[in-house]
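ERR on first pass: missing label on line 2. Operator R.T. fixed the label and resubmitted. Corrected input:
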Amino acid sequence: GQQLNQSPQSMFIQEGEDVSMNCTSSSIFNTWLWYKQDPGEGPVLLIALYKAGELTSNGRLTAQFGITRKDSFLNISASIPSDVGIYFCAGPIRGGGATNKLIFGTGTLLAVQP
Amino acid sequence: DTEVTQTPKHLVMGMTNKKSLKCEQHMGHRAMYWYKQKAKKPPELMFVYSYEKLSINESVPSRFSPECPNSSLLNLHLHALQPEDSALYLCASSQARGVDGYTFGSGTRLTVV
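pass 2 clean. output:
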C-alpha cells in the first residue's frame, strides 16, 4: 500500500532553534496535511496544502507542497517547549467510490529542551 | 462547535466483556472515521462512514462493530477483544469528500486485560 515516510524519526533540540522535517511518498498527492499530536490527545491540524509549490504559514510554522507532488516540508522557527510532540504528515487517497481516506506518515518526534 | 467528543476517555475491559466507544460531532460533517493508534505509531484507519453508511472497512476483525445511528454520532462496539487490541482509538470527522483535513477527538485509551 501507499506509505508516507518522514524524516528525521526524532529530533532533540534546544529552545530557540529552528526545526525542519520532511515527508516523502512514492505516489503523487493532491493535498498534503500536517498534524501535531500531544501525548494522550488526538492529532490537531496545523497546515493544509493544496497546490504544488505552495508555501503556507501558520505563526512560526511554514509548510511547503513539493513541486513533484511527492513530498512536503515543515519548518518551525524559534522553537519553544510547547512545540514538543509528534508531527505527522498526511494525505488523502481514494478509498473506494467517492470516499477518500487519510493516511499518515511515520511521524517525527520533537523534543525541546528549555 | 468545532469539536469531536469521545467517551469514555479511558476504558479497561476483560476479554469476555462487551463495551462501546462513543463519538459525537456537531459540525455538520457527513463523513466519520475510526482510527486505531498504537504507541509511537501513526493512526491506522479502521472504518469510514459517509452519509451514515459504511463505505470503508479496512479488513477489521468482526470483534469490532461500528455503528452510525445518525449524522452526528458514531459508535464502536467491542466484544471478545484480545490484549493486543489495547490502543488509543480515535474518532474523526470531515466534510463528505474528506480532502480538507479531518477533525479528531481526543481518543479513548483502551486496555484489554
